[in-house]
Amino acid sequence: MALSQSAVEKHMMRALEACKASIANEPVPVRRARKLGGLSAAAFLLLMLGTGAGWHPANWLRDLGADYVAPVGQIREVTLADNSQLVLDADTAIRVDFSHGQRRIEVQRGAVFFHVSHTGQPFVVETEGGRTEVLGTQFEVRQQAGGAQVTVLSGRVGVTAGAGQAQQVLTANQQVEYHDGQAGRVHGVDSQNSLAWRQGWLNYYEVPLSQVVDDLARYYPGRIILLDRQLGARKVSGSFPGNDPLAALDALGAVTGFQRHTLFGRVTLLR
């Protein structure tokens, strides 16, 4: 059973108090030597306990500044003040700023599908140094390491990979990625298939296993750890329900040959 944040905090306080009591009973020289090690061990244990329960301290701190958050394993629908409709993929956080004559969204992590209403004001989505300007559309911005992937379902968007870079205009069924301020090539894509996560399905064709694992981790209340980089680079295809990430991993394991080991029901290792 997953531990709530409050439960994790209670375990943290009990473990720290026990550690302090143990150190207090030691002779002074031994006490000083063991103090740091004891507290470090307790902190490490509690960190593993917390992250295994789906509580990620770094995300928790960042989310204090977010306006909308979709927790792990849950897709969230949001209606903004301008009646634009957003669908947040699991484990996603955004900030919203409607001021100075423009509508600005910052994707702090995760993926968001946008159906933007027409008000005459610019609508801009920013993440990892790049920006996507809406020219009347339905589209997704999916944050990736050092960049993002933009997929257009209908209409047009202008994507700028970084300051000083040329804008690329995408239309329906087109996609582009940018990383570290550099844009990739615009290419065609089956947008309905790529955006099926809104209906609870994750669809892939010839993508690295590591990408699939990262996506499944959004729906898993713990940690999924891929121990083999070469395995992570293998290309896989398939269609999987987002509400059962372990079943998806088992199906992938049957094809690629990796083994899954789940510890305490919350930490899953792949090798």
From TrEMBL:
It comes from the Bacteria. GO terms for molecular function: sigma factor antagonist activity. Pfam families: FecR. The keyword Metal-binding does not apply. The chain crosses the membrane at residues 36-55. Gene3D superfamilies: 2.60.120.1440, 3.55.50.30. Keywords: Membrane, Transmembrane, Transmembrane helix. Residues 67-157 form the FecR protein domain. This is DUF4974 domain-containing protein. The lineage of its organism: Bacteria, Pseudomonadati, Pseudomonadota, Gammaproteobacteria, Pseudomonadales.
